[in-house]
Specification:
The longest helix has 18 residues. The N and C termini lie close together (12 Å). The protein has a 6-stranded mixed beta sheet, with helices on both faces. A 4-stranded antiparallel beta sheet has the order 2-1-4-5, covered by helices on one side. Helix content is 32%, strand content 26%. The protein is of the alpha/beta class. The chain is built from 7 helices and 10 strands.
Length: 245
C-alpha cells in the first residue's frame, strides 16, 4: 500500500482541503462533496475511485478550476484557486491543466492532427513549432499514421488517444481525466489507462484520474476512495516498483 500522508509541500501538485460543494436548495438540495481532503503527488498517477454519483466529476471540476467550492480550498502547485480571479483561472486552465473527458470532446470537422493542435493555435505558437509538437504527441499516443483522419474515421479508443494528445499539447503540469475509459470496452479501456500510465512516466506530468473500474487501479500510484461526499485513502495493487522499493 502506498502512503498518502505527505508532509513536504514540494512533493504535492494538488492539495484539496475540506472541500464542500452542494447544488440546489431546500429539500431537493444535493451535497456532492462534504469535506473532501486529499493530495496528488507530483509526477504520479492518482486515481479517484467511486460509484456513479459519488462526486468524482464535481471534485475534478473544482481541482481544474472549472467550478468553485462552497467551502474549503484547493491548492494547485501552491496556488490557492479560491484567491484567483476568473481571468487568472482561465490562464491556469489553458497553461497548467490538461483535461480528458469521457466523451472525447473532439471537433468532428478537424483531423486528428488539427484537434491536437487546437490548444497550440490558441496560444499562437509558430506553425513549424506547432506541427512538430503535434507530430511528437501523435507518435507518443501511437497514432502517427492517423494524423489526417477525422474522429468518425477512428475507433473509440483511438479518439480517446487523440484527446490525451490534445490535453498534453501545452505541456500541462496536471492532467485531469474524468472517467476516460467510461465509453470504451474493457480491453480498450485498459489500453487507454496504460497510455495514461506511460504518459506520466515519460512526460513527468501529474495525473488525477476518476474511475469506477476497479480493474484499472493497479496502474495507479495512489488511490482515493470517494463515497457519500467524503474521501479516504484506498490501496492500489502493488506494482513491481512498489514491492521492490
Amino acid at each position: 500500500m502506498t502512503e498518502h500522508t505527505v508532509d513536504d509541500d514540494a512533493d504535492v501538485m494538488v492539495r484539496v482541503e475540506d472541500v464542500h460543494r452542494g447544488y440546489g436548495r431546500g429539500p431537493t438540495a444535493v451535497q456532492a462533496l462534504r469535506g473532501v481532503s486529499l493530495t496528488a503527488r507530483r509526477g504520479r498517477l492518482t486515481a479517484v475511485r467511486g460509484r456513479s454519483g459519488a462526486g468524482k466529476t464535481t471534485l475534478l471540476n473544482i481541482v481544474g478550476g472549472l467550478d468553485r467550492p462552497d467551502r474549503g480550498r484547493v491548492l494547485l502547485d501552491g496556488a490557492d484557486l479560491s484567491e484567483l480571479p476568473e481571468a487568472r483561472l482561465r490562464e491556469l486552465r489553458r497553461d497548467r491543466v490538461g483535461f480528458v473527458f469521457q466523451g472525447f470532446g473532439l471537433l468532428p470537422v478537424l483531423t486528428a492532427a488539427e484537434n491536437v493542435g487546437v490548444p497550440l493555435r490558441l496560444r499562437a505558437l509558430p506553425r513549424a513549432e506547432r506541427d512538430e509538437r503535434v507530430r511528437v504527441l501523435l507518435s507518443l499516443v501511437g497514432l502517427a499514421d492517423h494524423a489526417r483522419q477525422r474522429p468518425d474515421e477512428l475507433s473509440g479508443g483511438q479518439q480517446q488517444r487523440v484527446a490525451v494528445a490534445r490535453a498534453l499539447a501545452n505541456r500541462p503540469a496536471l492532467l485531469i481525466a474524468d472517467e476516460p475509459t467510461g465509453q470504451l470496452d474493457a480491453h480498450t479501456g485498459l489500453a487507454v489507462m496504460e497510455l495514461l500510465r506511460a504518459v506520466v512516466d515519460s512526460e513527468g506530468v501529474t495525473a488525477l484520474v476518476a474511475t469506477h473500474d476497479t480493474r484499472l487501479l493497479d496502474l495507479a500510484d495512489d488511490v482515493w476512495e470517494l463515497d457519500d461526499g467524503l474521501a479516504r485513502p484506498g490501496a492500489p495493487a502493488p506494482t513491481v516498483a512498489q514491492t521492490s522499493a
